[in-house]
Design a protein that fits this description.
Strand content: 25-35%
Number of helices: 1
Helix content: under 10%
Distance between the termini: 23 Å
Shape: globular
Largest sheet: 5 strands, antiparallel
Structural class: mainly beta
């Protein structure tokens, strides 16, 4: 299929080092957001260049508006109480 990367005329909302909180967005279709990350706080580790189309049920072609994607680092001990110390959970998340 076509590449998912798209051009946009706006800057990313978040930057490397910024603390972010994951929203609990309603799901009517499949999302790429792991359920265990909803409401969690992490730190932006990387901002990927460009914006990416997201497969969804809106839009004539099944694609939503393009969004920036961020690699976000989470402390697993804040997600699961019995996690190992000195480890991290990374997730690539749409804006």
């Amino acid at each position: 299929g076509d590449p998912a990367i798209r051009g946009v005329d706006y800057a990313p909302q978040f930057s490397v080092g910024q603390t972010v909180k994951v929203k609990d967005v309603p799901t009517t279709d499949h999302t790429r957001l792991p359920g265990y990350l909803r409401h969690q706080v992490g730190v932006v580790d990387k901002v990927y260049p460009g914006a990416y189309a997201y497969l969804c049920s809106t839009g004539a072609d099944g694609l939503g508006a393009p969004m920036y994607v961020y690699r976000v680092r989470f402390n697993p001990q804040e997600i699961w109480a019995e996690s190992e110390a000195n480890s991290w959970v990374y997730a690539d998340l749409f804006e």
